[in-house]
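tool_log.txt
---
The assistant was asked to compare two proteins side by side. It first ran the structure predictor on the initial sequence, then on the second. Raw inputs and outputs are pasted verbatim so the downstream comparison step can read them without reformatting.
(1)
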Amino acid sequence: MYSEEIPQDQWRNFLDDFSHRHVGQPVTLELLDDDLGDQPEAVELPLVGVSLDPKDSAGEIVEIIVGGEPSADVNHIVRRASRVRIAKTDQGDDQALEIEARDEPTVLLRFGSSPYPNEDHGPIGTA
């Protein structure tokens, strides 16, 4: 596995392309926090999309939507994003998307099996 940092001036095109290639694929959305530990926000829900907020002239607001159904949508906003990285398998397949932000937990959007086997596969707090 290896990772690649995406230059900020390429975020919009990269995220649009990433979303187009992976729409509908199951992902796990985690918040990585040194104080609280890893917190799942959505587990194995279909990706709807990842994009920059078009109204944000600084290009630092990233919106992540998973679920695709009103009762199961998770919409996570990353404000003040500072880094975007893509992790790839040795074969070159996308494995995870990491978005770091100033003063917020890092967001990890992962493909593959969930490390949270007892989760209900929906947003935290839903049954």
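(2)
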Amino acid sequence: MTGSQDPLNDPVLLAFLDESLPESRMAEIEARLRSDDTLRQRLQVLAQQHDQGVHSLGEIWRRHRLSCPTRSELGAMLLEALSPEQTEFIRMHLEQTGCRYCQANLEDLKRRAKETESDQLTRRQRIFQSSIGYLKD
């Protein structure tokens, strides 16, 4: 294992195929695939089984993202409207599991929240500017 967190077992390779590993882990596996014919063959067999519908319970769980919070749950977390337990679970899912799908959703929600704040500020400034003449004594 070259600095990896866990061995390259079938679940890890299937997660690699689904592109659901953290970026650093994906890059590590890609580097190993370039130099390891046996690993490439193993991955090819797994990909064929995957395409033929041979699924494990773990793979079904990952593919359907059963442990992923919904987008509304991520938004509620940003608004601090979740229980501490729910927030802790989502943080663990994002940080320890490194779910790229949920990280992307969270970043998108943060970006949209900033855009909304900016739009509100611009709107307030326009209203203020347009009503200056009416506010004189």
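---
observation on (2): Residues 1-5 have pLDDT under 50 and may be disordered. The CA atoms of residues 20 and 99 lie 6 Å apart.
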